[in-house]
Task: structure prediction
Amino acid sequence: MNRLLLLLCGIVLLMSPHALLAQHGGHGAGAGRPSTGTSNPAPNSDMSDFNRAIALQATPDQIARFQQSTKSTDAAKKLAQDLAQANLTHAENTIHPKSSLYAGLNDAVEDAQSNNLQFLRSFSASQQSGLKPLIKKLSKADADVSKQSKALAQELERSESSGKKLASVVEKLDTALTGFQTGQLDIGKEMGIPPQEHSQ
Result:
């Protein structure tokens, strides 16, 4: 019988440690404040971080969309860098490199922006809310890419445009794409998506 009582008492104590701590702390002036060094803010903060991570966690479909998006951005950056180098090589010439190369760059940029938009559209309400500052930053970078892409198109329409001038415009587009890529990677990191290798 005594063993049964002891067992029941043990179960009660295990199930209500907070009540025991409250009774222990109630004998002094610091009632309600355990002197064990336990602090509530840290656990609450950890739980808040955990809940945020769960809310922002990417789905398998979003991971696939993200990888496709960053891959297309990487491809556009590589084309821009190759074109900039080609223009510098023929800096004094007014003859443009093959127009097909510029058409390819334009297509790559549009592809990168389109894939990025599809990725952003897949966000849940909680992801949109939690990632709002980063989404805003990425949208700004996207607008800069569009601006530099249009500047390149306008430069190509000028028959007197030199290779050096074209190289400068393409380099600005590459810089804009770098900012765009950084914005994508920042969002991916917050969503727990593993980074992939990409060119700089």
About this structure: Residues 4 and 10 are 10 Å apart (CA to CA). The longest helix spans residues 60-89.
